[in-house]
Give the backbone structure.
Amino acid sequence: AAALLLLFLAPCCHAWISTPSVYRNSKTRLFVETQYTLDGETIRGPVTPIGNFCLVKTKDTLTATEGGILLPDQSKERPTEGVVIAAGPGRIHPFTGVRMKNPVSPGDSVLYGKFDGQPVVYNDDQCQMIRDDDVLLFYQGVSMTLDNITPCRDYILVEMAQEKLETKSGIAIAAQVTKEDLPCEGVVAKVGEGRMTSTGELSKPSVKVGDRVKFKDYAGNDVMIAGKPYSLVRNIDILASMPNEEKPES
């Protein structure tokens, strides 16, 4: 009987001894211990951004070739895309004490300035710690479309005119060569919810979709959406709105 008892207990004892300590506690209940790292150092738990900071995992922007093949676009100077891993609740206004709610949440894809924020390596992923003020627009989904994007706060999305650049002899000129000569104007395609005031209320944008606007030189952030050129401009940098060109009746 003793021999049979030993034969029965041997596999159980072997399983207990071979089980790593991180998977069991004193009451023999199994659990999994998740490890977190920041810049190569092990930390005790997940990172929690404070105030209006956001932890964003950077991602490559994909560009479609004429054949429809998606390629990572790393050659152009452009705003950077990423996915929000964690976000703070928002900053507190220094004079009114009102919480300025963070406009983005974990899971949102965001577009932000190329040189904004502080780079960090979180759980072996290249990330960026940015403020909510650095976010140009946010969206849900794999890639940006005009339907799924939302300009952040007081940003205005302006559709720029696509003009064919040629000399009198018919030679095409690269857009980069004449970039400084292009007018800073276009048609409003989308508007954000507005700038948040010190009382936590939103001030409505001064322009609406369809308005033709002119904005300050170098104030726009260029972005391509579905192959069309757009510029993200803060409401405060828009100088004037103009009557849009009427299409001739056919």
Notes: The first strand starts at residue 36 and ends at 38.
